[in-house]
Amino acid sequence: MKTTFSTTVALVSALAATMVSAERASTTRYADANVGACGCGSNGTPFPWQSKISDNVYTAAGSQKLYDAGGASWCGSGCGSCYSLTNTGERAGGAPGNTEGGPKGETIMVMLTNLCPAAGNDEWCSLPTNKHGMGAHFDIMQGVPGWDNPIVDFQPVACPGQQFGQCECASRSRVKRGIEGSTAANEIEA
């Protein structure tokens, strides 16, 4: 087989693309009537879109690493950021041998609108890693049908739509994330 320079470059590029993998994180699900650390909602009631923005797009509370590594308690730098989560099929926690976390390969998107604090959540949200060996954690609002606390591969992505613009944090912060049709995952206002 004769290998040309362009074929070699293409093969190396393809290999490099597969080697750049997403990080791993644990997931859980929650439901509450609080506006969350990013100030989304009013009078203690989340906005309707917070339980599900659209098909396969949800909101979540992120662990400190995702929400704000600097330790802010309100309006962390991660508020309004979006991530793609791909289910590995493995389940974090649960009975020994129960590794079924849901449909392997299914991908959703989440927008961070809340903090999963380390204090009181050391099993899932502790620093630098949780009890399941993960450095990041997503607590998904209302959960995802068919998902049972799966381990996911995650990476940052651009946010859809403009829902986060309704959050109190977005109106008080100079940072906006993926709102008003922005194609950038993070955009700083001038």
Which strands sit side by side, in order, in the main sheet? Answer: 1-5-2-4-3-6
Unreliable segments of 5+ consecutive residues: 3-20, 174-190
Q: Residue share in helices? A: 10-25%
Strand content: 25-35%
Would you tell me the overall average pLDDT?
A: 74
- Count the strands? 8
User: Strand-and-helix sequence, N→C?
Assistant: HEEHEEHEEHEE
Query: Major beta sheet, specifics?
Result: 6 strands, mixed, barrel
For the termini, the CA-CA separation is 56 Å
What does this structure look like?
It is globular, with a radius of gyration of 18 Å. The protein starts with a helix and ends with a strand. It has helices spanning 5-19, 64-67, 122-125, 168-172, and strands at residues 23-30, 57-62, 82-91, 107-115, 137-141, 150-157, 175-176, 187-188. It has 190 residues and is an alpha+beta fold.
